[in-house]
Task: structure prediction
Amino acid sequence: MWLLALEACVAMFILIFIVWWTMFHGRKPETPPENEKKQIAAEKKDTQSH
Result:
């Protein structure tokens, strides 16, 4: 009986880990790539100088 409970706990852990990994892994969409960061910085500099 304890073996079935252990197996159920391991399966639940794997399921939670897969969901967590897919939700929080990867590049965040609000961080622009380096090229866009430079372009945004240049635009801000141009607008501040006027």
User: Anything to note?
Assistant: The chain has a mean pLDDT of 80. The longest helix spans residues 2-24. The CA atoms of residues 4 and 10 lie 10 Å apart. The radius of gyration is 23 Å.
